[in-house]
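Input/output pair, single chain:
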Amino acid sequence: MEIQRGAWEARRAYQKQNPLALPQYTEPANAFDLLKAYAAGWLIEPGIAYGKNPPFAPGGSLFNKIVNEAGFGTNSLFAAYQLQKLAARYGFGRGATKPSRGQTRYLFMMVVVGLVKDSLIQLERKSEKTDLVKAVQALAHAGLLEHYGDAAVDVIDDYLVQGGDDTIYLEPEYKKTNALNAFLKSEKLGKTDEFSPNLRTQISLAKKIFRKGEYFVNVKTVLAASV
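Output:
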């Protein structure tokens, strides 16, 4: 895990010069980015994760909230890493092939964890943050987290479609300014029906559809054993 900028490049150079040195790492994970992923998914803060950096730096408001949270630890960061890898599979962020995914990486993460939480609730399992960490890890290990990714990316793509129903462009708050970037960076995004009712409707519908998927039987088995 890269905590200081440039640490991964330094490690790669060291491994190249010392090929027999152990351990040999193949992938980096940036601690700052993982905290953002955790905040978006587990704290429902996609707007802040997308729009601000200071809250996630040491001493920042969300940094302190996360690291002092009961149960937060390496497993939490690894679950956030799995979520990060899932988002990368769909091409979110800069250079996105679909316009709907250029600014919505953290919103996608929020939706994925929300769907996982709904599955736990439907199974009458505990759904606190530590339970969601275990569930995401178990689903990723079983190769089933991608089903949640497929459902979540459908929500995002539908939400960002011009002219569609229940889209971001018809949100009451968005229509006040028509400022997409500002709307997606809002601290209120995804939290209430007042701010983003169309998003909440899209997510609610996705949860109902997800439960009827043929793969849900396998999902239930994995979640029942993990939480």
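Residues 7-226 form one domain. The chain has one domain: 7-226.
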